[in-house]
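User: My collaborator sent over this chain with a note saying "see what the structure looks like." That's all I know about it. Can you take a look?
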Amino acid sequence: MSLFGNISVPKIPTIPTISFPSKNGNAGEFEIKGEVVLMKAYLADVTDYSATVANAVSELIGQKVFLRLVSSDKIDQDSGLGKRGEEESISWNSLDGPMAGDSKLSVSFTWKAELGVPGALLVRNAHPREFFLKSLSLFAVPGKLPALRFVCNSWIYPYYFLNETERVFFSTQSHLPNETPVGLLSLRKRELASLRGNGTGERKFLERVYDYDFYNDLGNPDKNSDLRREVLGGSQDLPYPRRCRTGRAPSKTDRKFEGLPLLPTTQNYIPPDEKFPHVNLSDYRANFVRAFAKKVIPTIKDIFGDEFHSLKEVKAVYSKGIPKALNNVMDLSRDLMPLQMVKGLLSTQDQSLINFTVPQVIKVDELAWKKDEEFARQALSGLNPMAIQCLQSFPPTSSLGAELYGPQESSIAAEHIEKNLGGLTVQQAVEAKRLFVLDYYDAYMPYIERINKESDERKMYASRTLFFLKDEGTLDVVAIELCLPHTSLTQAERNVYTPAQDGEEGALWLLAKAHSRVNDAGYHQLISHWLRTHAVIEPFIIATHRHLSKMHPLHKLLLPHYFDTMDINQSARQILINANGVIESGFTPYRYAIELSSKAYKNWKLNEQGLPADLIKRGMAVADLTAPHGLRLSIEDYPYAVDGLEIWAALKQWVSDYLSLYYKSDNAIKEDAEVQAWWKEVVNVGHGDLKNESGWYEMESVAEAVEAITTIIWIASAHHAAVNFGQYAYGGYMPNLPTLSRRLIPEQHSLDYAEMMKDPIDFMLSSVSNPNQATTVMAVLELLSKHSTDEAYLGQVKGSTHELTDDDGIEQAFGKFSAALAGVENSVSERNKNSNLKNRYGPSQVPYTLLYPNTTDITREGGLTGRGIPNSVSI
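Assistant: Without extra context I'll predict from the sequence alone. Here is the result:
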């Protein structure tokens, strides 16, 4: 039984204490034994196995890796640096194959009592190749019993590539800047300076420099003027969070754009420690996405036809799959994936590279997606539950100029909806907080005319969708408004559609819902998902490495929530959000997709990104000290909010408990030079386009620090889990979540109108994503929705802050956090069993588990589980 009820909190293994025998009979001289854990580099660029073995043998034999301990509390009077022990070496004298996984090697250090307590490790690699150093554990250390650990998790490149500079690592003991042991002061400053670089030159793959740039590399104007895309960031009109600077030469045709890599398989530069070695195929995240998009997607159009003519044809997608025979799988990844992973693909029994799994949304009821009840439910517990708002006044209005886009006031009138308000008037429904809206008018309207002129195959509306909260706690969809702007030839168009099942009105209602879902799918992917998680987190990652030392407790708290994010983001810039990438090809806004997200970023405020503040802003909750978590929800059965508030409370308590171990007063935050430099750069550089806007915490009190850091972790973990890991469950069936619209609703008496009336389902299918577009998006959604088998989940010791530090109080605080999340798991499970909570399942019978923490699952199952909150934006 643990301190936390029935929850067993795993511990970092304790290394037993041993005695300190004097070495060679010299009094005061000790032998410190230890163990190094490392992973050999993938030899993926050598395709001949015998050559691989020969090269590996030549590299791994001999004493070519040198380690030296540095005193934390004793300095050399001449240099002012921490005193150093003797340099020791390790060697690999056996070869387990080109990818051996973890290697555990023994090491022995000579240490003198006069050197005090070790606090830093210097590493010099004389091999011609890099390796990944995971950790060094010292079994027993004078003055630091019973053990001392160095958690490294870093690629160690040959030191002669790095101007013969040794790599430095600090022990797991944390130190605020003004409490840094004297022997480590210079190393702390040197390490941070090396990570900041000088802001010039093109970054090389082995450099470790974190720096900022605009999104000026999404287009390719040198190849084709039609591939030109606007620079995002650096302007008031198109603001954007910063991304990692590569320093590549500018485009030949326009110097404000960055030139693309010379080879299409070359990855964008990110610091090497942002690319973690993954052993299992399913865990090799960013590279597999890149390989798949570049090699597999182009073949999809050769497999499926030009049109879906029935739901039966849509369903046939799940039995076809993508045959391996259409691709040379070795070519799939020669430059993108390790050789061993390619062999893993080739060795599988399945004859398809991709087999589309039947998504959850149609597993129980193939027609559930058509039901208005399921359509409405997904606004609360589907992929995009943070877009719905409580309607504060009727009718909805726009902030866009009427002279450009038409009337600001919605054309939805009382007579459209009062028949479906359970006897209430519109005013009564508004006052009772029972009207809700998905309002995408302002998000899309500035681009509708340009999108609709782009091609005959892309036609779009800006939509408003109204819902009514019924007595039983579920939503009814009561109206959909589809809007077109003024053009030089036409007046603004506002068409309102209301629920109907049959005949002409039923056919129009089916199309209206499809267009509403297209709007929702785009907003989800571009704003709720990409912008509000992937893009906004990257500046925090960059600033953390530039200003918070690895021995800073806040660095250790934040680091697990940055895992793999920069890697997946750089891949996204090459194949997902780039010109003609997956998003542009598969979503209606096309070339304006990411630019559209820039407009949304104008209104982004950090202090509105935490769940409680977000719910209050959207009118989905009001402050109420008598209610759980201090909020009274406008819809009691709102799965995203109910589950999320429990997670938010656990997160905030963990952050508060953790920071209280290091900051005893608000003054301690103000006087922390690294925290203040970190925060100043986040605001003024990383999110510099919004630096003069409201919404930034001042970082002058512990309370502000807790709120800001809880929000950062929430964005990277729970918010991302909610919008990412259910993508295939709902979007894997295109009619439920079409991402592209190809036709406007036909005018009455037209030939298209007659075609619609002949077969409404067939016409709807011809109006949205075609087979090529649908299966391309489905394939990517399936990849993005899968958990890896080595996932580091929120609240688990694996990959957590608890692994990075042995400071007093951490184990107890983290155990309390893990126990709280295990409690959330129980609560979610119980709520999902409650038949009175109809929004948790609905007609499709898809349970809401996207915010089920999964801390107690020891099977480490991967794949399309639909549950679990990873620590970071890692896919």
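A starting point for your reply to your collaborator: Confidence is low (pLDDT under 50) at residues 1-21, 43-60, 94-99, 325-351.
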